[in-house]
């Protein structure tokens, strides 16, 4: 039998983890990437990677609590077994990365140093300065290069994934790719295809994402029948630096190391921020969330910053929305040692030293919790079965999704420093499953009739040629991209309203039609970036429509999806009895809303539109609870909810299912 | 929280804080050295770019791509260039800007116009073969990392417990070296690093071409970035186990001895990596390694 091969699309943390693990298992790998894999978007991850560790363990932490923080942070929208498995692998993954040579920061005694991140009270986050993603990516890149030298891995860098090849039985048998230099289009037969192509940030025009994050690879799978889950859940990071080409991330680690967010109590106070006395500063996150302070989860911090600027009119500047992120009280040496990378970015791009002057920041589109739908094999202990070919497989057999482009791990909101973990975990967990899959194959993909691959390759060649030949139309792909970004940013980020979403759906449909009439300014056959961009622009629309439609239909607030018209509201009564009654009603409403909306959005592409269905979420391990993070004024709700949870636990004790409910109540 | 009219991102393009704004032009001129493909002649093209606050060379190139029209009103193809992260951590957008090799993303238009009012000049790096326009082929740079075995030779990826404990001081020495993003600025500035262009021959397979190209690249100078990576790997407690193999690679043709000590590399490194310190340390390590080998130790 000819050799079996696996194709991996995307060479970020997820793709490289899968590649090196497959190579170790003796499986040949082809790795296709738009950019040299060392330049993948994972380099932009700054703050760190989470796991339970020896110190937090002795403070009462354990893997279950990391799992709990993750699903609580995600507003319970993720299936729990894969998340549980990930939390339990966390410590081992960090140890592996340490062995591979990541230059993690150290304690004085030489152990891995840790810092605190949002949505937890424990210091779980291991870090390498403020360039942790870059450092993790580099050690994986090095391991993959090692296997490349041995001939186990072949790289196809500067190649664009045009789509999967699916046979008559609906099974994925390989991919079609295009060389971005020579523009050659060719087929790659493969026993299994893993897509780890990252997020779709460019749909929003400017975001914290890199230029390769067009979402086109995920969209192309979607257009070939792969389901897309929870598309409307887009994380808007609370702290980014505005820019004309990109909104650059200012890591949550700045707050993890003690950074404080504030605005002057006087609107647009013209004074130098350093001269504004303490009592004239409004540390709004600290006042509103005394327990978590500046480290509430991202969706909450983003909404609060937005609220302060838009509703309270307390933006630092009059003509531009921004708040201060202040590090100036932290010793310079400590800042340089732990945050040097991000401070250098701020200094380089803004021309101001954040060690001595508070930074000006504002939220920006950052991460997609949603992505290609994928499966898992649940184990008896509530985790997943390692080695099952079901893990991470999409609804198309033999087509897998990992990393940011899968929808599996983060529910309605991702906690900081959990993405590096989910990327590496999903990459590593996929490899043994594919090993099992390959053992059961009697025929390799390369033995399939070439007509199967030729037919699909010809479709892509025809699409490409038609774009080059089209003379009329006159639409400019770069300008349509800007318009798409403006529409999406206005309608589908921090605050969502049905009238705006309806309008955006109409506008995007019109833009989609206009995009189909794009004329190219380059019709050549050599390194034609114009045609490659136009194709990726066209492929942004199915995902843009998925995001908008999912947001339009979901009439509730959950994690990053915030629709004020359907907000739960706050307690207003001051009288104790009435307040109690309101809290009871609040909890009733919360339960009714979960019954209606605690469901994954599943999108399918019909050829010209998006169809949505809803799927139950596996919350069998940790029952959902209100997500309050100790908000001032919400104590009564917590009290009522705890009583209900305790009553339920009491009722369940007879059948042994009470333990998890007790933990849930205790950590509320 | 109540309702909002817009999501407020619209005014992101407005001016950031920074030095007091000086009189900014409405437009400025960008001169670009273009080349349609390998082996083709290069030619200058002039573009008129409208000024916006907070521009960098990436947003300049984006505007040029969208307009695709020269100053003389001639319709042209968009200029090809390489970029990804736009925050100077991926290493993709290296080019020569106003005569200086650097990353396009961190080249801010306000600063460039302060240094040279009215115009910006963009040319491709000269030490790598031009693929098209400002887009060059840097595969030689990655080949060098393979040649020096720039990886930690772990047993495998199963759970084996934690890695070796390391001091804060060791981490602080290693970390700057591990920030190298393979951008190639150090190679552009190096007098000893000369361009090697290997064209694919008729009838040659991709594999044959790559093998021949790699062999050619291996004969040329390996460059400061790869020498620095050797020192990073050799300092790692596990990487030290095969330190000798990496030093052997530095003793081969195109190795450390080709360094002419011009020290340009360290001056242009956008990450301020102490490249000449690495080269100095590599020199001593290679000498000791060679003596040991001489005595069969």
Describe the structure.
The complex is a heterodimer of chains A (668) and B (297). A six-stranded antiparallel β-sheet of chain A has the order 13-12-17-16-14-15. Chain A contains 18 helices and 21 strands. Chain A is α+β, with helices and mostly antiparallel strands. Chain A has three domains: 5-233 and 369-451, FAD/NAD(P)-binding domain (3-Layer(bba) Sandwich); 238-363, Succinate dehydrogenase/fumarate reductase flavoprotein, catalytic domain (Flavocytochrome C3, Chain A, domain 1), CATH 3.90.700.10; 577-666, no CATH class. In chain A, helix 6 (216-223) packs across helix 15, helix 13 (477-491) packs antiparallel against helix 14 (498-515) and helix 16 (576-597) packs across helix 17 (635-652). In chain A, helix 1 links the parallel strand 1 and strand 2 (28-33). Chain A is 39% helix and 15% strand. With 297 residues, chain B is an alpha+beta fold. Chain B folds into two domains: 23-132, Beta-grasp domain (Ubiquitin-like (UB roll)); 138-155 and 165-294, Orthogonal Bundle (Fumarate Reductase Iron-sulfur Protein, Chain B, domain 2). Chain B has helices spanning 57-67, 109-115, 139-147, 168-178, 185-189, 206-219, 224-235, 243-251, 264-268, 275-294; strands at residues 27-35, 42-50, 94-97, 100-103, 119-123, 130-132, 135-136. A five-stranded mixed β-sheet of chain B has the order 2-1-5-3-4. A two-stranded antiparallel sheet of chain B has the order 6-7. Mean pLDDT of chain B is 92; it is low at 1-6 and 8-21. At the A-B interface, helix 1, helix 4, helix 5, strand 13 and helix 9 of A face helix 1, helix 3 and helix 4 of B.
């Amino acid at each position: 039998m000819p050799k079996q091969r696996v194709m991996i699309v995307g060479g970020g943390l997820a793709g490289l983890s899968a590649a090196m693990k497959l190579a170790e298992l003796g499986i040949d790998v082809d790795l296709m990437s738009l950019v040299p894999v060392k330049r993948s978007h994972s380099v932009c991850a700054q703050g760190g990677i989470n796991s339970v560790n020896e110190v937090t363990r002795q403070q009462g932490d354990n893997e279950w609590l990391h799992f709990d923080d993750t699903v609580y942070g995600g507003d319970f929208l993720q299936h729990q077994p894969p998340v549980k498995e990930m939390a339990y692998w966390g410590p081992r993954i960090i140890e592996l990365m340490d062995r591979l040579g990541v230059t993690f920061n150290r304690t004085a005694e030489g152990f891995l140093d840790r810092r605190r991140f949002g949505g937890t009270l424990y210091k779980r986050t291991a870090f390498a300065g403020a360039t942790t993603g870059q450092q993790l990516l580099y050690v994986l890149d090095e391991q993959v290069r090692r296997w490349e030298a041995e001939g186990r891995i072949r790289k196809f860098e500067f190649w664009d994934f045009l789509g999967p090849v699916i046979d008559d039985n609906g099974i994925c048998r390989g991919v079609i790719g295009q060389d971005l230099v020579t523009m050659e289009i060719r087929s790659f037969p493969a026993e299994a295809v893993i897509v780890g192509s990252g997020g779709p940030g460019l749909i929003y025009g400017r975001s914290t994402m890199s230029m390769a994050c067009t979402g086109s690879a995920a969209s192309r799978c979607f257009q070939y029948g792969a389901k897309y889950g929870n598309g409307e859940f887009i994380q808007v990071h609370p702290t980014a630096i505005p820019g004309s080409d990109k909104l650059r991330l200012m890591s949550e680690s700045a707050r993890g190391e003690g950074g404080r967010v504030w605005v002057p109590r006087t609107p647009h106070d013209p004074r130098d921020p350093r001269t504004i006395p303490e009592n004239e500063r409004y540390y709004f996150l600290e006042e509103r969330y005394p327990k978590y302070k500046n480290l509430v989860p991202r969706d909450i911090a983003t909404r609060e910053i937005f609220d302060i600027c838009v509703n309270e009119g307390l933006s630092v500047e009059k003509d531009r929305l921004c708040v201060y992120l202040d590090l100036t009280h932290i010793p310079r040496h400590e800042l340089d040692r732990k945050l040097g990378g991000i401070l250098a970015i701020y200094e380089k791009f803004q021309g101001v030293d954040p060690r001595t002057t508070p930074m000006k920041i504002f939220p920006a589109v950052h991460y997609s919790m949603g992505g290609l739908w994928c499966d898992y094999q649940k184990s008896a202990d509530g985790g997943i079965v390692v080695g099952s070919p079901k893990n991470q497989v999409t609804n198309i057999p033999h087509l897998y999704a990992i990393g940011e482009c899968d929808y599996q791990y983060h529910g309605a909101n991702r906690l900081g420093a959990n993405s590096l973990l989910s990327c590496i975990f999903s990459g590593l967990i996929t490899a043994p499953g594919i090993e099992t899959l390959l053992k059961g194959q009697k025929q390799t993909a390369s033995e399939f009739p070439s007509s199967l691959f030729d037919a699909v390759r010809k479709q892509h060649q025809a699409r490409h040629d038609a774009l080059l030949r089209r003379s009329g139309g006159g639409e400019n792909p770069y300008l349509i991209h800007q318009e798409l970004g403006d529409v999406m940013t206005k309608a589908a980020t921090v605050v969502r309203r049905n009238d705006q979403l309806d309008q955006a759906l109409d506008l995007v449909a019109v833009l989609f039609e206009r995009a189909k009439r794009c004329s190219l300014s380059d019709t050549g056959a050599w390194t034609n970036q114009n045609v490659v961009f136009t194709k990726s622009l066209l492929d942004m629309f199915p995902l843009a429509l998925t995001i908008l439609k999912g947001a339009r239909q979901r009439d509730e607030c959950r994690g990053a999806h915030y629709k004020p018209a359907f907000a739960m509201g706050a307690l207003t009564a001051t009288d104790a009895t009435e307040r109690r009654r309101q809290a009871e009603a609040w909890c009733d409403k919360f339960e009714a809303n979960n019954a209606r909306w605690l469901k994954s959005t599943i999108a399918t592409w019909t050829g010209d539109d998006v169809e949505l269905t809803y799927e139950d979420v596996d919350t069998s391990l940790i029952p959902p609870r209100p997500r309050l993070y100790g908000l001032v004024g919400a104590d009564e709700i917590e009290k009522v909810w705890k009583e209900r949870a305790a009553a339920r636990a009491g009722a369940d004790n007879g059948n042994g299912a009470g333990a998890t409910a007790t933990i849930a109540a205790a950590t509320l | 929280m109540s309702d909002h009219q817009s999501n407020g991102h619209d005014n992101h393009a407005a001016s950031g804080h920074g030095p007091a704004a000086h009189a900014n032009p409405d437009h400025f001129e960008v001169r670009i050295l273009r080349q349609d493909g390998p082996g083709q002649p290069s030619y200058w093209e002039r573009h008129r770019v409208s000024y916006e606050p907070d521009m960098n060379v990436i947003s300049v190139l984006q505007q040029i791509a969208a307009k695709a029209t020269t100053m003389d009103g001639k319709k042209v193809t968009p200029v090809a260039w390489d970029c990804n992260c736009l925050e100077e951590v991926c290493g993709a957008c290296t080019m020569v800007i106003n005569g200086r090799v650097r990353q396009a993303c961190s080249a801010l238009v306000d600063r460039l116009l302060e240094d040279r009012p009215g115009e910006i000049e963009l040319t491709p790096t000269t030490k790598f073969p031009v693929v098209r326009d400002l887009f060059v082929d840097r595969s030689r740079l990655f080949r060098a990392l393979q040649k020096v075995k720039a990886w930690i030779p772990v047993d495998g990826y199963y759970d084996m417990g934690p890695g070796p404990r390391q001091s804060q001081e060791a981490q602080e020495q290693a970390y700057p070296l591990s920030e190298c993003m393979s951008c190639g600025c150090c190679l552009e500035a190096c007098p000893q690093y000369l361009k090697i262009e290997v064209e694919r021959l008729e009838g040659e397979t991709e594999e044959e071409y790559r093998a021949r190209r790699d062999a050619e690249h291996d004969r040329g100078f390996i460059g400061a970035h790869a020498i620095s990576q050797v020192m990073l790997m050799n300092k790692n407690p596990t990487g030290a186990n095969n330190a000798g193999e990496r030093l052997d690679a530095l003793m081969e043709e195109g190795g450390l001895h080709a360094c002419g000590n011009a020290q340009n590399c360290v001056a242009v490194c956008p990450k301020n990596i102490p490249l000449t310190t690495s080269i100095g340390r590599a020199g001593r390590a290679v000498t000791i390694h060679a003596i040991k080998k001489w005595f069969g130790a």
